[in-house]
Design brief:
This protein has 11 helices and 8 strands. By secondary structure, it is α/β, with parallel strands linked by helices.
């Protein structure tokens, strides 16, 4: 990755998740406090009081969701494995992970990097599709912390990689694995499910939807001639969200005669609450209620070797 033998920090940015049931409410508070992600009514001054109120009332239900998947988010563990796997495929790279809304936070990790005497870094967003709500917020958080803690750090940032060919290859392979059973069913549909954003982000020019669609189209060129749809999950709160919703799309496909459904989590690169609970439990139950008897989810990218090599090649290409 570098021309000399000095180490380079490989820093992966991700959202983070609670590491215990007790951490759910403070995690939600941190998330709802971020005006780059969610702009609560009444302006910036009341953002934190509103965030405290909303996180308190939502925590009870969210705690039960996390209890269903083992009592914590696996996102940090997967991101650490990804960081180690990518760094292990590069020369002189030291892996680090920064989470936006729960530990490890940016200032703590940058202090570790500074104390290690590392003066260079490559910062890789683990959101393939750019939106100011996730990548933008995480990158800004990193920049603020770097300026405060390690102002001498020389870094490059990779903010999007939705059309990176090797990433599309790895995702296509996961879909083929998901299709291994039931691919001959004439009612089979593939449903790509991306995390929703408030529609106002798209209306103001955020490229997220375009990036998601470009990924889907690139992947389906590799997978083959199967009917597919795109929908958006995890919509909550009294704002207008991107459409269609995944729940509504499941109902629509059932009405059209779909009995076999493969869901592909398109904006997530590792398992966490939205795959393990929302898709695997809630959407599975919903599909069965609608008469879709064969419901499957494509495996997540997680630490599959082809995915880690894809991102190592991306870092090498962008930062050599």
């Amino acid at each position: 990755m570098s021309a000399d033998s000095k180490p380079t920090a490989l820093i992966l940015l991700n959202m983070g998740g609670p590491d215990s049931l007790e951490a759910v409410e403070p995690f939600l508070y941190n998330l709802f406090s971020d005006r780059e992600l969610i702009q609560l009514p009444a302006g910036a001054l009341l953002q934190k009081p509103f965030a405290k109120l909303i996180s308190h009332f939502r925590a009870k239900r969210v705690v039960e969701n996390y209890r269903t998947i083992g009592g914590k988010s696996p996102l940090l563990e997967w991101t650490q494995k990804q960081a180690a796997g990518i760094a292990g495929r590069l020369e002189h790279a030291q892996p680090y992970v920064i989470m936006r809304y729960w530990h490890p936070f940016a200032e703590t990790v940058l202090q570790e990097i500074k104390q290690a005497g590392i003066e260079r870094a490559v910062v890789l967003s683990m959101y393939p599709h750019y939106t100011g709500a996730t990548t933008g917020s995480s990158v800004n958080d990193f920049k603020r912390a770097a300026a405060k803690i390690h102002p001498g750090l020389d870094y490059q940032i990779i903010e999007e990689w939705y059309d990176w060919p090797a990433y599309l290859d790895a995702l296509a392979t996961r879909i083929r694995e998901g299709l291994a059973e039931g691919a001959e069913d004439q009612t089979l549909r593939i449903l790509f499910s991306a995390h929703a954003l408030p529609q106002k982000f798209i209306d103001r020019g955020d490229p997220y939807r375009k990036h998601v669609m470009a990924t889907v189209e690139g992947v389906m060129k590799r997978v083959g001639d199967y009917p597919w749809e795109v929908a958006f999950q995890s919509r909550s709160g009294p704002v207008k969200w991107m459409e269609p919703g995944t729940e509504e799309m499941i109902g629509k496909l059932a009405k059209e005669g779909c009995k076999s459904l493969l869901i592909v989590p398109i904006s997530f690169v590792s398992d966490h609450i939205e795959t393990l609970e929302e898709i695997d439990v809630e959407y599975r139950d919903l599909a069965l209620e609608h008469g879709i008897s064969n419901f499957r989810r494509a495996p997540s990218l997680n630490d599959h070797g082809d995915f880690l090599q894809a991102l190592a090649d991306l870092v090498q290409e962008k930062c050599s």
